[in-house]
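Subject — a protein and its fold
Fields — amino acid sequence, structure tokens
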Amino acid sequence: MSGRADSDTPPDTHAEDPEETGKTGETDDAAGADGGAEADDAAGDARRARWAAAGAGAVLALAGVAAALLRLTGPAPVLVPVAYACGAAVCALAALLGSRGRTRRALWLLVAGLMVMALGDQFD
């Protein structure tokens, strides 16, 4: 650069015109159709993940409650039904989060709830 205020910038820093690059600003029909199909697939995958997380959480929560009630009526220590009930509560929370779209957190809560139930079973 020459240092003059009225000097022009080098040609490689100019913005390119759409006519030069072949872009006219119009969208390509094939690209638009593929983008819509990919969006539909992503939405379907997200919907299936929410249903899976909510369903698994609900089933495991019901199983935990049933196990807690069975252990409560038996001669098991009090800690066992409490552990099953706490694990069932964590799984119910996972079902709630899964239904709201927080499927990764729901998965980890399902794992934690099952671990609490398994730990409670070890006290028996």
Observations:
- Residues 1 and 13 are 13 Å apart (CA to CA).
- Residues 60-124 form one domain.
- The radius of gyration is 29 Å.
